[in-house]
């Protein structure tokens, strides 16, 4: 569908902002190739680097000013995200939405649900995490 819509840019002033993860031939890279081949005159690509460890750690700390979040959990969030800031945010948001962390007296605190979150996100049960995200998005909670 996107490939069809890109042709409209030849006749109309349109702005498409597409976010793709590199390395996915059947999706993002296929669409980028189509744009490069058919809409070269109107195409500009901005590539973003992954966050390094310090930047990802700063993002986690800024998102979760939290008492009691163990350093190993922060490290797992950073490692699992691969430096992708959107994924860091989704992991943190899922922790909040699922009650893994709660806000009390203006600060986030870890709850007893942290172990379940660790298992589903970090120990090979990503399908539970992705199912949780799908539910989250289907309810319009983005």
Structural key phrases:
142 residues; 3-stranded mixed β-sheet; disordered C terminus; 3 strands; 2 domains; single chain; 7 helices; elongated; mainly alpha
Would you give an account of this structure?
The chain is mainly alpha-helical and 142 residues long. The chain has 2 domains: 2-42, no CATH class; 53-138. The protein is 54% helix and 7% strand. It has 7 helices and 3 strands; from the N terminus they run αααβααββαα. It has helices at 2-6, 25-38, 53-63, 71-81, 85-97, 114-122, 126-138, and strands at 66-67, 101-104, 107-110. It has a 3-stranded mixed β-sheet with strand order 1-3-2. Helix 3 packs across helix 4 (71-81). The longest helix is centred in the first third of the chain and has 14 residues, at 25-38. Mean pLDDT is 76; it is low at 135-142.
Quick structural gist:
By secondary structure, this protein is mostly helical.
Query: Could you state the order of secondary-structure elements as H and E?
Result: HHHEHHEEHH
Question: What is the count of structural domains?
Answer: 2
Broad shape: elongated
SS content category:
mainly alpha
Tell me how many strands there are: 3
Report strand order across the widest sheet.
1-3-2
Main beta-sheet strand count, sense and barrel state? 3 strands, mixed
Spans of at least 5 consecutive residues whose pLDDT stays below 50 are: 135-142
End-to-end separation: 23 Å
| Average pLDDT taken over every residue | 76
Strand content range: 5-15%
Discrete helix count: 7
Helix fraction bin = 40-55%
Instruction: Compute the CA-based radius of gyration.
Output: 19 Å
